[in-house]
Write a structure and sequence with these properties.
Layout: E1 9-12, E2 18-19, E3 35-38, H1 74-80, E4 89-94, H2 100-113, E5 118-122, H3 127-136, E6 144-148, H4 152-162, E7 166-170, H5 187-204, E8 207-212, H6 225-229, E9 232-238, E10 244-252, E11 260-266, E12 269-272, E13 290-297, E14 300-312, E15 321-324, H7 328-341, E16 349-355, H8 367-379, E17 389-391, E18 394-395, E19 401-402, H9 407-416, E20 421-425, E21 435-437, E22 440-445, H10 448-454
Parallel strand pairs: 4-8, 4-9, 5-6, 5-7, 7-8, 15-16, 17-20, 20-22
Antiparallel strand pairs: 1-2, 1-3, 9-10, 10-11, 11-12, 13-14, 14-16, 18-19, 21-22
Helix pairs in contact: 7-8
Length: about 475
């Protein structure tokens, strides 16, 4: 029997949250003035229908139709798990100007140069503007077709006419359909457009790359359902003041969801960076206030340099705590640990900390390196053991060093780049005796005080 709700429903136009009565503020996304009245949907009885194809044992399902195809961009293939799967829908989201369109135009050009038909649909720029950028970045190819459309029906007509094996849509928030209510970019429009593109991708075995916008909070714009509809969600990250960019997989049905690809944005387009460790290390000699650590971006170890500057606070002033590329809350915690456990009177000192090269170092394994940098700047000296050493370890409130994952890969990366000593938490093995691994001297330390002592910091502290 069909059932009809007795009361009207109210829906948030931003996130899709529903309530039985009107409220001024959405209870899910906390946005004001976005809750609008909408008739409650009718629930109807669904009758069973005979399937067009019968179910088969999973071992008998053919795998030829799902073989991956390389996109031509090695770093992107790495993040995708080995290439694009036919019928897969990939969502690439990032801030404005980070290089999303440049990257996918490069992917479309490489795909077309391999003799595979490609359709690039631009909803934000005219065809002439996209052609101008393609000429600047050398992204021209005979099999690359271009269309500037914002209507979903017209986009699907282009797909029927060109029959591409890869469809790029820039961006999904600009495409609209007359079959759904709301303006382009709204919850209903984005849901209907994405659902239609997913259906045509699965039915034709066509890979689809979607560009998505993000909100001021860094979240993907549109309904949360958008991330559930697509197969792969990629986050394009980078500092607008630095050319370094990272593509991070946050969801991947066909591969690892923790992989990272590295790129560099240049005047001629975007280049792959297969070995990005050197970008985050300054080439100058060791100076007070610097330390090296190894972070894990996905399964890739990256060397990173952290810097600190400790100076005496002026009279009648509160000490300042400033961080760039580092978690400020962890910096405050580490300063408290150093003051309590290592007897450093940092409450009278200003402390500025930052990472090198625009990298964001938020992993707890960088705690020990940041503590070494602060201690080095505090004593205004570079102990002999700091110059060619890498510090790894999370610091607890008692000053103990906690274990970090992927230590073997971190040690191997440090040895590959010429570092001869690595300080690691003693909890990784029994005792504090040093050992050799991958040509590197590994020195376990139980506490941050032990680590500073191994590196040669003087026991006397200036007052």
């Amino acid at each position: 029997m069909a059932r009809t709700a007795a009361k009207p429903a109210f829906r948030c136009t931003e996130c899709g949250w529903t309530t039985v009565r009107w409220v001024g503020r959405c209870g899910e996304c906390q946005a004001w003035g976005t809750v609008q009245e909408q008739g409650a949907p009718k629930l109807k009885e669904v009758r069973a229908q005979p399937p067009s194809r019968g179910a088969v044992p999973i071992a008998e399902v053919p795998t030829e139709a799902s073989e991956r195809a390389l996109s031509g961009i090695g770093e992107l293939d790495r993040v995708l798990g080995g290439g694009l799967v036919p019928g897969a829908v990939v969502l690439l989201a990032g801030e404005p100007g980070v290089g999303k369109s440049t990257l996918l135009l490069e992917v479309a050009a490489h795909w077309a140069r391999a003799g595979r038909r490609t359709l690039y649909v631009s909803g934000e720029e005219s065809a002439a503007q996209v052609r101008l950028r393609a000429g600047r970045t050398n992204a021209l190819a005979d099999e690359l077709y271009l269309a500037a459309e914002t209507d979903l029906g017209t986009v699907l007509g282009h797909v029927e006419q060109t029959n591409p094996s890869l469809l790029v849509v820039d961006s999904v928030q600009t495409i609209a359909t007359a079959e759904a209510d709301g303006s382009p970019g709204g919850v209903t429009q984005v849901r209907e457009v994405t659902g239609a593109l997913v259906r045509i991708a699965k039915s034709r075995g066509m890979a689809v790359l979607l560009i998505g916008h993000v909100t001021k909070d860094g979240n993907i714009a549109g309904p949360r359902l958008l991330e559930h509809l697509v197969d792969v969600v990629l986050a394009f990250e980078g500092d607008r003041h630095s050319g370094f960019r990272m593509v991070r997989a946050t969801k991947n049905r066909y591969g690892p969801a923790d992989e990272v690809g590295c790129f560099e944005l240049v005047d001629a387009g975007i280049n792959e960076v297969p070995d990005p460790s050197g970008l985050f290390i300054s080439q100058s000699v060791a100076v007070p206030g610097t330390a090296i650590t190894v972070t894990m971006e996905g399964r890739r170890p990256l060397l990173a340099e952290v810097q600190a500057l400790v100076s005496t606070t002026g009279p009648q002033q509160n000490p300042s705590r400033v961080s760039a590329g580092l978690d400020r809350q962890r910096l405050l915690m580490l300063l408290a640990v150093l003051q309590k456990r290592c007897r450093m009177p940092l409450h009278t000192q200003d402390c500025h900390a930052s990472s090198v090269g625009g990298a964001r170092v938020t992993e707890p394994s960088a705690d020990l390196a940041l503590a070494v940098a602060v201690a080095s700047s505090y004593v205004d000296a570079v102990p002999e053991g700091v110059g060619r050493a890498v510090a790894l370890g999370e610091i607890g409130l008692a000053g103990e060093l906690r274990r970090v994952p992927g230590v073997d890969r971190r040690i191997a990366e440090a040895g590959r780049l010429g570092f001869d000593t690595v300080i690691v938490p003693a909890s990784l093995q029994t005792g504090l005796k040093s050992y050799t691994q991958a040509g590197v001297t590994v020195q376990p330390a139980a506490t941050v005080m032990d680590a500073l002592g191994f590196l040669g910091f003087p026991g006397r502290r200036r007052g």
